[in-house]
């Protein structure tokens, strides 16, 4: 009995279970969408009616969306060149989108690629942590911004004002904690101890041992972040915001070319639905939130007034261009990384302040 239990608890068994649950969940969601909102023939008819000009505009928006995050990576990794940022971004995005628990695998690939180019593990950690924080700040901030715009437009119904207030409080709290960690080493240590206690409590429920040394980890991380944030927080904030808005732009363009007009669903309402659907990706239910994000977008946009078939077609086009296409591109960039020998150990050194040393 004990041996059978150990087999079930093995990493391979858990991965198989994750894949099975993800596939089953996606299948149920697809069945529900086409049963509840529109049948497949109606959706394909909407897509077939797209003109060459509309397809070109949609592809241009998708290409811009891919490009914008490359600049985020360059800003967050001093010494990294734009072509390297493109290869790193697309390769890790492909892994994150295609593999169960792909976010963790993508982080490992990030370290491997940066290390091959001569970037130390600490510089890789700085990139992972800072971009993660800024992305989460924007994810928290966009629903607040979108709801505030809708409220100012005079359509605050459905609890939107309350939701905006709660979101604003959460964002202010997150920014305040981050600022205090950077300002005070003592506060950083205390925050690490508190986070370690919470993590240990959760691990205790899973019958695992407690964590240790989180106070030292947070203070060490604080020192690495200060140099980068002091010099680049403006560029990091702007580039991250542009990247998130570019993803929203693909959805908005897809809605307009499929016939969902501004009269049916205004751009601000689209931003609200998009922003809250993005929060779903913080919970790794399926790789890249596939199935769950589509359901959230379709439900929100149809309830806002969009035609069912047009909304389903737009969401599928949006996810095809922002989720499926990066997987294909990432496969090519990964092969390019494996073959690009001239980039090996090419990272320039950094000064103590975190800036690139000119040679």
Sum up the structure in keywords:
mainly alpha
Please describe what this structure looks like.
The chain is mainly alpha-helical and 359 residues long. It is built from 13 helices and no strands. It has helices at 2-8, 11-36, 40-48, 52-76, 82-98, 102-116, 121-152, 160-183, 185-205, 214-257, 267-280, 292-303, 308-339. Helix 4 crosses helix 13. The model has no long low-confidence stretch (mean pLDDT 79).
Fold blueprint:
Layout: H1 2-8, H2 11-36, H3 40-48, H4 52-76, H5 82-98, H6 102-116, H7 121-152, H8 160-183, H9 185-205, H10 214-257, H11 267-280, H12 292-303, H13 308-339
Helix pairs in contact: 3-13, 4-5, 4-10, 4-13, 5-6, 5-13, 6-7, 7-8, 7-10, 7-11, 8-9, 9-10, 10-13, 11-12, 12-13
Question: Quick gist of this model?
Answer:
The chain has 13 helices and no strands. With 359 residues, it is mostly helical.
Order of helices and strands: HHHHHHHHHHHHH
In oligomeric terms, what are we looking at?
single chain
Determine the fraction of residues in helical runs and give it as a percent range. over 70%
In DSSP terms (H or I, runs of 4 or more residues), the helix count works out at 13
Distance, first to last CA: 64 Å
Mean pLDDT: 79
Query: Major sheet, described briefly?
Result: none
DSSP, total strands: 0
Radius of gyration: 22 Å
Poorly predicted runs are none
The backbone outline, from C-alpha atoms, is globular
What structural class should be given to the helix and strand makeup?
mainly alpha
Strand percentage = under 5%
């Amino acid at each position: 009995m004990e041996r059978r239990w150990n087999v079930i608890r093995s990493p391979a068994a858990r991965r198989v279970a994750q894949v099975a649950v993800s596939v089953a969940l996606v299948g149920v969601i697809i069945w529900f969408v086409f049963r509840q909102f529109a049948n497949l023939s109606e959706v394909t008819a909407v897509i077939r009616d797209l003109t060459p000009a509309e397809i070109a505009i949609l592809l241009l928006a998708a290409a811009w969306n891919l490009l914008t995050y490359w600049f985020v990576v360059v800003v967050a990794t001093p010494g990294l060149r734009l072509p390297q940022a493109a290869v790193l971004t697309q390769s890790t995005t492909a892994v994150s989108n295609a593999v169960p628990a792909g976010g963790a695998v993508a982080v490992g690939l990030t370290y491997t690629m940066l290390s091959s180019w001569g970037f130390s593990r600490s510089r890789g950690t700085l990139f992972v942590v800072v971009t993660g924080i800024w992305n989460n700040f924007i994810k928290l901030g966009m629903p607040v911004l979108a709801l505030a715009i809708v409220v100012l437009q005079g359509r605050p119904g459905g609890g939107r004002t309350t939701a905006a207030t709660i979101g604003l409080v959460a964002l202010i709290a997150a920014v305040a904690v981050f600022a205090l960690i950077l300002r005070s080493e003592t506060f950083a240590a205390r925050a690490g101890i508190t986070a370690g206690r919470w993590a240990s409590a959760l691990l205790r429920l899973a019958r695992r041992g407690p964590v240790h040394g989180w106070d030292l980890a947070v203070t060490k991380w604080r020192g690495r972040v200060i140099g980068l944030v002091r010099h680049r927080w403006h560029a990091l904030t702007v580039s991250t915001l542009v990247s998130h808005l570019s993803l929203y732009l693909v959805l908005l363009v897809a809605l307009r070319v499929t016939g969902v007009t501004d009269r049916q669903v205004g751009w601000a309402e689209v931003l609200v639905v998009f922003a809250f659907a993005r929060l779903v990706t913080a919970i790794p239910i399926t790789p890249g939130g596939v199935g769950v994000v589509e359901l959230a977008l379709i439900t929100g946009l149809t309830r806002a007034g969009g035609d069912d078939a047009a909304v389903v077609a737009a969401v599928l086009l949006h996810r095809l261009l922002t989720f499926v296409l990066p997987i294909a591109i990432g496969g090519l960039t990964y092969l390019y990384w494996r073959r690009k020998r001239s980039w090996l150990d090419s990272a320039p050194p950094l000064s103590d302040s975190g800036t690139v040393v000119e040679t």
